[in-house]
Amino acid sequence: MDYIILLSGFVILILGGHWLLKAAVGLSLRMNISKIVIGMTVVSFATSMPELIVSLNSALEGHADLALGNVIGSNIANLGLVLGIVTIISTISVEKSFYKINWPVMMLSSVILYFFIAYDGILQRYEGVILFSLLIVFLIYLLKFQKPATVDEMPDDDVELPLYLALIYFVIGGIGLWAGSELLIKGAVNLASDFGVSERVIGVTIISIGTSVPELAASIIAIIKKEKAISLGNLLGSNVFNILAVLGITSMITPLTVQDSGLLTNDIIWMLVFALLVFPLVFVPARMKLSWKEGLILLGGYIVFIALTI
Fold first, then answer.
1. What structural domains does the chain harbor?
2. What pTM was estimated for this model as a whole?
């Protein structure tokens, strides 16, 4: 029964995120906002909503380890699982913005998060304010100076929507995200209890993989259809949003206290290792390319992480 609840939560969460994204993009186009601005703001926030709702709901229900584990695990999954599988399937080219802005910002965000929670085991409200403020600065920088280097990340079915239809999608999407997160958290907590493992382990494995499924599916579909380039910047950007937006907003609403020390001694260290590992892989052996060899290294590392965690 717990598996059914968990699976139902995943499905409803993904559908809710899709409807919310469709509404956000459709409404933005109706308001004549440029696609490049939509891609960097509306789309980024909408695709981070499943992680945000799951983390926020978990924290409000007293499951801080699920909230933190979801984000830390998602960041590891984005680089180890998603990027690993994508590059095994098809070689991807890396833009110069990787080492100029995307990787440095992701690395800085990851290190700041580590020091914030390693210091006292709590992500405080004021620390959440700092994280979210950094996101605003990052977005302003992108919008002012990085427009030419930004890849069009609009959904394939981006169309202008009538106001009433956009509002319907917003409502359905919002309800779907909340209902899906409720089922997901209930199933996860029950599974943790049934198998005698901590909520943190469920968070960094099952929950984080589930919330990374949309990114993986979208990347594989894009490869099959050959419709647009797969950008490493997308995944790095997702990791930045997970830390600065998801944990920033969540901790501003309610401080997150680490219950399981494994988050500090194991999980966040792995997140930093994967973030560091991507940098040399982009330059060796082939400069500014990631192929199946690098993909195997990333995926192998992710399998090791899961094996050691569970």
1. 2-309 (1.20.1420.30)
2. 0.84
